[in-house]
Amino acid sequence: MRSTRNHHPWMAWLSAGVGLVLLLSAMPLDCHAQIKRGSRFSSKGGCLDCHDWKTLDDSVRHEPFAKKECRSCHKPHGLVGMLRLKDTGAALCMICHDRESLGLEKSRVHEPARTGKCLSCHDPHAAPKKNLLADTVEKVCRSCHGGAEFTGEVRHQPLEAGCFSCHDVHGSDNEHLLKMPAAELCVSCHDLSQEPMQKAHQGYPIGGDSCMKCHSPHTSQEKGLLTRSFHVAVADDCGSCHTAPTDENPFALNETDPSELCLSCHDADEVAPEGVHMPVADGECLECHQPHGSRQPVLLMEEPEKLCLQCHGDIEEDLVRSSRHAPAREDCTNCHVAHGQQSKILLTMGKNEVCLSCHGDLQEEHDAAEVHPPFEDGECTDCHVPHGSDFPALTRQDRFDLCADCHDEARDWLASRSSHTPLKEGRCNDCHGAHSAPVAPLLKATADELCNGCHGNLLQDAADDVLHPPFAERECDTCHDPHASAQEMLLTDPVSELCTSCHDGAPSTPVPGQSVHAPFASGECTTCHLPHKGKIEHLLVSDSKHLCGECHGDLLDRFTKGEVHEPAADDCLTCHVAHQSEVPHLLTQSEPGLCLDCHDGSDSGFLEKHLGQAGDDLHCTGCHDPHVSTGAGMMKRVEHDPFASQGCDACHPSAATKGEGQ
Fold first, then answer.
1. 568 half-sphere exposure, CB direction, 13 A CA radius
2. Residues forming a β-bridge with 230
3. Residue 429 burial (CB < 10 Å; 0-12/13-18/19+)?
4. SS3 helix, strand, coil % of the chain, rounded to 5?
5. Residue 617 vs residues 248, 504, 595, 601, 656: alpha-carbon distances, Å
6. Rounded to whole angstroms, how far apart are CA atoms 553 and 550?
7. CA trace torsion 230, 234, 237, 241 (10° rounding)
8. What is the per-residue pLDDT across 233-244, written as a single tens digit (0 to 9) for each?
9. Which long-range contacts (CB under 8 A, 24 or more apart) does 240-243 make?
10. Could you give the C-alpha distances from 297 to 133, 216, 259, 328, in angstroms and in order?
11. CA–CA distance, 427 with 414 (Å, rounded to integer)
C-alpha cells in the first residue's frame, strides 16, 4: 500500500471535511444544543443575554424584535464581528413586507426605497416614532429635502400634519410622489367656488392644475404662500395680461405676441437694448421666465445654472472637469447678467474686474517689483478659463504648454541634453510667480534661496569645508543654467571652457619635452576636482596618492610590495604637477635638478657611489626607480650584471678619467 505521506495536502483536508460533516449530522438539530456552555454564553442560547435591548429608545418596536425572534432576520452562526443577516439590503425586508403593498411597483419610487436603503429612514429594531422612524416625519424627510423651500415664515397647513398629508412615502404614479394628481390634490382641501377664493383670484375660473404657477406647496415668505418671486400683475390685476374673466376664453392674452405684452410694461431700451443676449433680443421672454410665479428669483423657470445649461451645454462639460470654478458651479449670475451685452459675454463688468471682485488680493500684485506682462496688460482669460479646466488653477493648458505659448525657447530647453527637473515636469511656478514676483525675472525669491529649496542638503556647509568661490557666494548661475543646457548637469559651457574662464592655463598641445595630464587635456576637470565643496585643498576628490591611484592603480599595487620613495609615499605633487609641465612626465622640473632638491650631489658619500661624479652630471632615473623598489638604494628591478655588482667602471669612466673614455 502507498504511504499517505505521498498524497497531496488536499486529501487531508477532504478527510477532515468528511469527518466534520459526519459529526454535525450526528448532533441534535435544535440550535440551542449547539450553544457552548460557559460564562460567556447563555445556557439557553438567548441572543438578548448578550445584546442589551433595554438601551434602545423602543416606544415602537419591530414585530420580530418585540417577540425576540432574532432569527427572523439574523443567522445564529457566522464569523465574529459580522452582522450575520439572512440577506442584504431591501431583500431582507422583503422576506416579510410585500413590494406591491408598499408601493414599490409604482411608476415613481422614493429614491431610498428604490435603491434598497430602507435603513435611511427606518430603524431595524426599535424607534421612538411610528413606523420605526428615528424622528418626526418632517425631520426625517428634511434630512434629505432641505433648503429655503421649507424655511419660509408662512407654512402650508398640511405640512403641520406631516409630509404624508400630500405625499406617498414609498411610491406613487404621480409626480413628486403625490397621493393624487396636483389638480385633484389642491381642490381636495380648497373649494374654488367659495367667495374668498373667487375674490383672491379676481373672479378668474382657476383650476387645481394651475396652483403651482403662483403658490409654493410648502412654505413662503409671502402671504398666501405666493412663490419666492411672482409677477406683480398676479397680485394686482390679472386683466393687464389676460382678457376679462367673463370672456369666452378668460385666460387668452391681450396681445398675440407675448413679447409685445411684456414690453407694454417693461421698457425695451432697458431690458433689450441692441446687442443683448439672444433670447432677450428675440423677445423670447418665456424661454427663461415664468409669467406668474417661480420658486427662483426674477420669475426664472429653473435655477440659473440649470436654466443656462439648457442652451450652453458645452459649459456643462467644463463644470465637471477636475478644476472647477466655484462661482460658475454655484450660480451663473455671479458673473453674468441675462440681459447683458453679448459682445461682453454678458458679464456684469469688465473681465478683469469680474475676476478681481473675488480675487481682490491679486490687485496688490500689480505693485510688485516684477509683474508678468499678460497679468499687467492682458486679461485673466489669456491664461485661465472661466468655468472649468482639466488643469490646476483653471489654466487653459498644462503649465509648461501655457508658458511655452509665449516663451518659445521653452520647447528648445525641453529638447536639450539636460533640463531642470521642474521644467521637465511643467512646474514653472516652483521658481516663477504666475502674476508677479519680488525678483527678476519673475523669481519668487533670490536665486540662491530658490536653489536652497530643493538642494538644501548640498548647500549646508561644514566648518572645515573647502568651498569653490562661486558656490561659497551662492552664485549658482555662474556655472549652471537654470532651465536647460547642451551640457550635462545644466552647465553653461563644457567643463574645460567653464573652468578656464576663471582659472588661467587652458590645456595646450604638448611639444617634445613637454607633457599635459590626460584628464586636463580632455577637459575632464571633475575627474580630480569637486565642483562645489570638499575636505581637501584644491577641492580634490581625495588625497593625491589615492586620487592618482584611480588611474595609476598598478603603481599603488607596487607600493605594497617594496620600499616606497618617501616623496611618492606622502604626496605625488611633491614631484609632479597636476595639469601640464614644460618637462616630461608632468615633473615639476627636469632631472637631475628635481632629485638634487633633496639629495646632495656633491656629498662624499654620493660621490663615492657614483664614481666620483657629481649629481648634476647624472640621469638619476636611469638607475633608480622614482616610486618603489625591492632593492637597496631604490634600484630598478632589472639590473645589468656589472651594475648589479657595482662595477660601474666596467663601462663608465670615473671622475678622474672623465673625458678620456666613454
1. 19
2. 293
3. middle
4. 45, 10, 45
5. 143, 35, 12, 9, 14
6. 6
7. 90
8. 887 888 889 999
9. 240/265, 241/291, 242/204
10. 35, 13, 20, 17
11. 13
Give CA–CA dist 295/410, Å, rounded: 53
Report how far Cα 330 is from the mean position of its chain's Cα atoms: 24
For residue 106, pLDDT beyond 70 = yes
pLDDT in tens, 582-607: 999 999 999 999 999 999 989 998 88
528, 499 contact by CB (below 8 A)? no
Residues in the chain: 662
Query: Could you tell me the three cell numbers for 528?
Result: 580630480
The answer to whether 164 touches 138, Cβ cutoff 8 Å, is no
Q: Are 89 and 97 in contact (CB under 8 A)?
A: no
Distance CA 45, CA 633 (A): 104
- C-alpha to C-alpha distance for 497 and 612, rounded to whole angstroms: 52
Cβ atoms of 436 and 448 within 8 Å: the answer is no
Name the percent of the chain lying above pLDDT 90: 42
User: If pLDDT is split at 50, 70 and 90, which confidence band does 37 have?
Assistant: very low
Provide the whole-model pTM.
Answer: 0.64
pLDDT digits (tens, 9 = 90+) for 394-453: 999 999 999 999 999 999 999 999 999 999 999 999 999 999 999 999 999 999 899 989
- Residues 380 and 374: their CA atoms lie apart, in Å, by 8
**pLDDT at residue 44 greater than cutoff 70:** no
CA distance 637 to 645: 14
- 655 vs 612: CA distance, rounded Å: 5
For residue 296, the one-letter residue type is: Q
